[in-house]
């Protein structure tokens, strides 16, 4: 027996002495007319009742005794995810795990421990080792270990032995205590760390839809495990084959990338598939195909075009952009000064926005933030008030808009030096680094464009499906009329093209960078309209470049209500949805009521309950896709029954099966899970070492099962009997 709520012995002695004093005082001589024997009897009964009450308050318990294997329980946790059904050398991984448990672990551990077998599938549960099947949808090893630890929270758990191939789909949280940290976790790896023969699609991604003619790059990464040589790769839309390529897989298993330019329909989301030819000798064919979602572009992106003076550049640029249905152009051209010396402007914009542009710049923060990108073309920034430059910097960094600056007047160091707008631009405005700024730039003829390696693949400057086509089209363009003597690229910026300036040195011509939430671009050339006027009428290089630049700048500018969700989610696993609600000034709306619904591929609507995600207008929701196909997420934000804005986001479920991506034995995950808990990792061939690892000295967190002595009717009746006897004797001896 022992106390569940123990106190120091000196404190217990003091309490008992106090109880004795109270009992003696109750029947002290002179206060009560009793004989010595009667006084001793009543005092003893009072002290016994008080002492028994103290005894029960300390909660006396007795252990029930340990079951066979008295050193505790060892949980054998067997991974039953689908990757455990992969067959290697004629035996599945799960069959190998069953053999390890049945023939090695149970005999080695059952003499010293109570051994219980659990399966880690869609949930953790008791299992018969012979009745396991590899059919769980996905693998969550940290969650399975935490569930196992919780399952045995009231028992003497000596250790957890996890038998798995390490194919974990949930990121390991290294900031929190590892699951089951109170007990050692011994992980046993089953499967081959090096696959004998398999060809897999490691990833398929869709690039931004910024290229001219709505071209989108589908990039496929292919890996061959012991499968060197040529392999056929197909691009599909549904069952229709769009393109066929031959990929040469290296013998060392290095990944190979293929890029498929596609031109999807733009009025709805489109799903494309990439498929590697199947070979019957592969480890699995379930990683030979992946689908990817290309979302519809949505509304036309609004561009504010500020031109410092009328000219050819404005006319040609506006015409190129106006003919692009994905762009909506508002232009403001400074005409000169009136009789009072005030600047006058020619405004061509949507009627709802014309009034706010009458002074040459949006009259309010809300009016500016209604645009997705701003273009400063030969604008005299010396004449811009400092708060206007600050507003443009905030437009890029906070609102997430795009900014394009072109023309020598706009790029004048005097207009931008020391302003808040200067760090937004991807290039320094003066050549403070001298030749170092040009060391990596390609050679170029005077005012001719020389594309850089980054420019060959960037959506702004890529002009063809192949690098050679892009390089040829840029080389064919006539020289520009001039180029600003710009300086070096800022850290993180990319120089996409260069040219030879008036002094004969090579200078950056086109550069881009991300700034805050937005994007910025510089075009340092003069007279790009020559690319239209001096080329054959059928050549579309001028239109392609400038449309791609505008789309790239504006395409990722967020909406006031924005939705973030995975583009491709596994069936049966939770898909997280993040919602951000801002007002017209892009300030968070913390008190908005957010409604989230999901339409399934079969047409059913599901209403989700979002939760606050840390304030600042952020909300979170999740749902589990139960069928493959295209889901449509709709979000509506209200305040006091007034709709602030709404947004939609497509989500593809089942486009890939992450359970079979890189199906090798993942020893890294298993080793981390073991070592962070004080356990160790062993391979299946060394499973005999597990018993020694479990027997390693380790303090147990709590005793075995116990029984409370006071938690029964007899405890109450005993105290009641003592008090009743005392009362009866008092009455008999004449006391009240």
Q: What is the secondary structure topology, with strand pairs?
A:
Layout: E1 2-3, H1 9-26, H2 36-57, E2 60-63, E3 73-79, E4 87-88, E5 91-92, H3 93-109, E6 114-120, E7 124-126, H4 141-151, E8 157-164, E9 185-189, E10 198-206, E11 216-225, E12 229-237, E13 240-249, E14 256-262, E15 270-276, E16 289-294, E17 301-307, H5 312-322, E18 327-337, E19 343-348, H6 351-354, H7 365-369, E20 373-377, H8 386-397, E21 402-406, H9 413-416, E22 450-451, H10 453-457, H11 467-475, E23 482-483, E24 494-500, E25 506-515, E26 518-523, E27 525-526, H12 530-533, H13 541-554, E28 561-564, E29 568-569, E30 575-581, E31 593-599, E32 605-608, E33 611-612, E34 618-623, E35 629-639, E36 642-653, H14 667-675, E37 681-683, H15 690-694, E38 706-708, H16 713-732
Parallel strand pairs: 3-6, 3-8, 8-9, 9-37, 17-18, 17-20, 20-21, 21-26, 29-36
Antiparallel strand pairs: 1-2, 2-38, 4-5, 6-7, 10-11, 11-14, 12-13, 12-15, 15-16, 18-19, 22-24, 23-27, 24-25, 25-26, 28-30, 30-34, 31-32, 31-35, 33-34, 35-36
